[in-house]
Write a structure and sequence with these properties.
The complex is a heterodimer of chains A (445) and B (282). Chain A has 445 residues and is α/β, with parallel strands linked by helices. Chain A contains 17 helices and 16 strands. Chain A folds into 3 domains: 113 residues, Alpha-helical ferredoxin (Fumarate Reductase Iron-sulfur Protein, Chain B, domain 2); 160 residues, FAD/NAD(P)-binding domain (3-Layer(bba) Sandwich), CATH 3.50.50; 149 residues, FAD/NAD(P)-binding domain. In chain A, α1 crosses α3, α3 runs antiparallel to α4 and α4 crosses α7. Chain A is globular. With 282 residues, chain B is of the alpha/beta class. The chains are: A alpha/beta (445), B alpha/beta (282).
Chain lengths: 445, 282
Amino acid sequence: MTDVSEHVTDFNEVNKGLSEENAVLEALRCMNCVRPSCVKGCPVCIDIPAFVEKVANRDFAGAVGVVKENNMLPAICGRVCPQETQCEGSCILARKEKPVSIGALERFVADWEREHGVKTPEVAAPTGKKVAVVGSGPAGLTAAAELARMGHSVTVFESLHAAGGVLMYGIPNFRLPKEIVQAEIEQVKALGVEIKLNHLVGRSVSTEELLAYDAVFLGTGAGLPYFMGIEGENLCGVYSANEFLTRVNLMHANCFPGFDTPVKRGAKVVVAGGGNVAMDAARVARRLGAEVTLVYRRREEDLPARAVEVTNAQAEGVNFVCCANPVQVLGEKTVSGVECVRMEMCELDASGRPKPSCIEGSNFVLEADVFIEAIGQGPNPLLVSMLPALTRERRGNVIVDEDGQTTIARVYAAGDVATGAATVIWAMGSAKKAAAAIDRMLRAE
Amino acid sequence: MYLVEEATQLADKVFQMWIHAPQVARHARAGQFLILRIDETGERIPITISAVKGDSVRVIFMTIGKTTEHLSTLKKGDALRDVVGPLGKPSEIRKYGTVVVIGGGVGVASTPIIAREAKEAGNHVIGIIGARNKDLLLLEDEMKEICDELFITTDDGSKGIHGFASTVLEQLLKERELGCVWIIGPAIMMKVTSGVTKPYGVKTFVSLNPIMVDGTGMCGSCRVTVGGETKFACVDGPEFDAHQVDFGGLMQRQRMYVDEEKEALEHFHHPHGGCGCCGGEH
């Protein structure tokens, strides 16, 4: 890995990946366990020992074939999966030394294939069944790829002008280069999947038109940004992380005026939140040239972001203020500062984390001209609210059974719209299950 | 790609464009908008759907910044990179009795589609269209055809009634029983005009035009305060109860990128940043 601090002025990928030699050496460390626990740790059940063994034997094409049996987006997952809590966290070697770098190997074989010629997996004979997939994020792409391989005719509807969902608008280029996202989407399309861009289901496609398909998969994600509801939130210079990241990642505001979409770069940026999205926003703001302070209401050890993202953010000069929470955005028309209050940790809550509470009179002001709220997202309400028969939880998540079946016949949901905001790989894992259930349903007819 | 089927200039700085966009045209209703992006480096801008014919939609826009200037240079046969819509909730059209549909400046673009649907719903439709002067007046013939009555106002008195739409509206409120009023125009005009209906308690809709990015409820750029609550104009609107809207907040956020808009326009006319080395075309 290269020194992250040198990247703070550009949007190039920070992690450079493994060389062929290092990949083979790393793969040779695998114990090839009889009962591999790593596979259990993988939400999409990749046969990890089999692909790692092929890497050790320098059969890179064979290795990527094994991965793609269960995961059509390996270059993406190899980069953004939290392997430390999944496959690598379950690796037997993790107990003694360090686990096999399974994520880096997955990325290596995917990148190797992209450079050496992509082989499209086989597709089953056409079933004549038509499936609509709503949303082209991790869940939608996974469901689409699975269903296409099973022989169904799949149409994906995407409301934005680019496919990929959060992979395009949310995750910055320095973590996940956009050409890699598009290359993997091309592979999904090569399976026969049709992606209709600029189609907002519920508006450009009516719910009647949607429900006319033999089956429907909802992968509309958690794109609704939550706001803190504090005073001054509508001042110029206050962004949801979604907006800030969309302006830069999808619309290339970092290249303004070469690209038309502007963004307030700010001299001093305050980011509220402690998840991966907050880290992404903070690191993007650093690259736009600002001094960045991240305010998180719990302790540093409670930060929900991946450890590596926190480390990278710190190395890039993001200043962390933990145990503090914004209470007001200051300014006349534009932001001039963020008033925060110190927090103390009380008894543990349901999540096992200490519950933060305000320390009265501890208010302090962070000078700022841009304030970004990265406090979470809810499910996109537009389409689901237009399907009244769809039962949802209080926070808006679509209720599904373990197969992803919703309360409407033939309509399945997976990913963040069903589980609430989670990771790319969890969305993919749940989408895979739903795709299998859709296939069973369609074949039973 | 979305084909430009017709592009014409209607008045000084005002242009009309018919765009082939079947999925928008098939579902478009009064009050809705679309978002377009001219090319790969373009921004996404919202524009109200002004009319629908077959698989095509009409938009009318005024050149105010880089994107609208660029848009105005497109000709029949050119294409737009992206068009998505219809976005937003349709106007709440039902039988109110007598309704008034008011358009000011380029806001007149939104009025025919509302007036037509209101007429079809069995309302007596009164139109009021206004402009600074007679040369800037839009869609007079079209509105005349749809509306049961049409009033024209100009700020300078060069055509119709000398004054503002609010003057006519005030008179109508005194003389008639009005069921509903739509006001579409610049934020300040909507604020002032809707102030007239408030004492009469007449249901009044305004169509808000804050800055948007995705237009599908994902970014919150277009948030406005309505009745003390934060609403997203793109999915909760764009039409809202005028008497609940915080117009001050709307206008403040509309000006967020004033400096950047100037810079983008400068860059459009002088791609090298106005350095003087670009061949002297401008």
